[in-house]
Amino acid sequence: MESQTQTSRAAKIGLGYKVIIGLAVLTVLEYWVASVAQGPLPYPVLCALLAPITWLSIWASHNPLPFLALMAVLKAGLILHYFMHLTHLWRGHE
Predict the structure, then answer these.
(1) How many domains does the chain have?
(2) What is this structure's pTM?
(3) pLDDT along the chain (94 residues), means of 10
(4) How far apart are the C-alpha atoms of 46 and 50, rounded to whole Å?
């Protein structure tokens, strides 16, 4: 019984780490889009890492608002679902 509880706890902690990493990646993308919209990227390393996404940089430089709004909605959804457990309101008690 204790082994199953530890396994469940470890899985939840692992999921939490994955969500935090996902939020960090989305935050970096938001920063990148905002930087591209304002002009050249301030950090050459970041520019080199994200160079393969040239179509996104062209789109982001012309109109960054839809992309930034999408990132904000995705981040809010992750927080609501995984950290605030909002879906439990509709599922009931398990």
Answers:
(1) 1
(2) 0.67
(3) 77 90 90 73 58 60 81 91 78 62
(4) 6
